[in-house]
Design brief:
With about 425 residues, the protein is α+β, with helices and mostly antiparallel strands. The protein has two domains: about 5-70 and about 190-405, Naphthalene 1,2-dioxygenase Alpha Subunit, Chain A, domain 1 (Alpha-Beta Complex), CATH 3.90.380; about 75-180, Rieske Iron-sulfur Protein, CATH 2.102.10. Helix content is about 30%, strand content about 25%.
Amino acid sequence: MGAEKPCHLRVELAAQASGRSALVEMARRNLAHLKAGTVDRAPSIHRVPARHYTDPERARLESERIFRRLPLVLGFSCELRGEGAYKAIEALGVPVLIVRAADGGVRAFLNVCSHRGAIVAPDGLGCARRFSCPYHGWTYDADGALVGIADRADFGEVDASRLGLTPLPAAERAGLVFVALRPDAPLDVDAFLCGYGEVLAELGLERCHLAGRQTVAGPGWKIAYDGYLDFYHLPILHRGSFGPRIPSKALYDAFGPHQRVSMPNPSLARFESLPEEDWDAEALTSGVWTVFPHVSIADFQAGGKLYMVSQLFPGARADESVTVQSFLATEALGEEQQAAIAEQMRFLAHVVRDEDYFTGLRIQRALETGARRDVLFGCNEWGGQRFHRFVDAVLETEDAALPALFGAGSGRRE
C-alpha cells in the first residue's frame, strides 16, 4: 500500500499481541490518514432495510439470538472490590446476581430461589457472605450453593447439592464483568472478544471508581447504537453543545464486531520524533470504544479523567430501549471532583436525551410510517455497516457455529 492511500491499509492485530502494541499500530495508521487527509472508506454504500428497525418479530429474534446468547457487560470490577461484594441486576427481564468469590473471581447466577422462584437479592450493590431468600429463608453462599433450608426436618428430603442457584457464564476482563443470560451460552468471553480485551485493558477501567449512574430512555436499540459508531453527525446534530469543535471524520479499528472509533488526530504528529516507549497512553487510547452488541466507552474531563460507559438494552418493543450510563473516575473522588462529575453527568444526559435520542425517536416514528424502504450507510460510515452486517450474521448463525463466526474476526481490522 502506498502512503497516499492509507484508507486501504489492512492492519493485522493478532490476538496474542499486547494491547499497547495494538494501540501503537492504530496510532501509526491514524498518522498515515492524517498526513494523506483521508479517512476509512468502505468499498460501497450499504443499505439496511427500514423494517429491521421496526419489525416486532425481528426485535424478538434480536433479543433471543443476540442479547440472550452473547456475553453482556453487566458490571464493573470497581463494583465488586472485595470478597462477598455483589451486584443484583435485571437484564432483559432476567434477574442476575454477580458475586466476588473467595478465590477473587466473579460468579454469576440467576437471581432466583430454587424453592419457589422468589428473587433472592434485591437490585443494587452490596456485600454478603450469604444470600437469604426473603420469602422462606433458603440461604445460598457466594458460590451459589444451597447452605440452609428453614425448618429442614419438616420440609422433607431434598438433595441440596442439586438445588443451588443456577450458574450463568461469567468472566472479568479489562475492568468489565461479562455475563451471558443463558446457562448454556455457546460462546466464551475470550472467543467473543476476538483479542479486544487486551486493548481495552489499556484504558485502566479496573483501577477506576464508580462516580455515578443515570438512565436514559431511547428509540429502538439499533437506532441508538448507530449513533455511538457515527462521527458523521457530530458537528451537525451537536452544534448547540460540543459539535462545532469536533470534525466529522472517522477511523475504525475492529476486532470482530467490536470497534474503536477515532478521528485523524493532529496531536499524534509529535510521536514521530519520539521513541515508541514515550508515546503516552492518554493519546493512544482516545476515541470511542464499543463492545458489541450494547456498550460504548467514551472519556471526558471532570476534575480528572472520567469514562462514561453506556450499556444499551432493548426494550419490550422494537421502538424502545434503555441506556444505563455509568461514570468511572480514574481519580479518588474528592468533593470538588464530585461536583465537576455531577455537572458533566447533567450535560451528557442532555446531549444523549435531548439531541441523540430525541432525533432517534423521530427517526423511529418516521421509519414506522413506511416512508423509507431502506436507510443508507455511506462509505465513510464503515462502522455502522460492519455493525449491521454482524447483527445479520449473528441472527443467521446457530449456536454451534458462533465460535467460528467470532473467530473469523479475531484480532483483525476488516
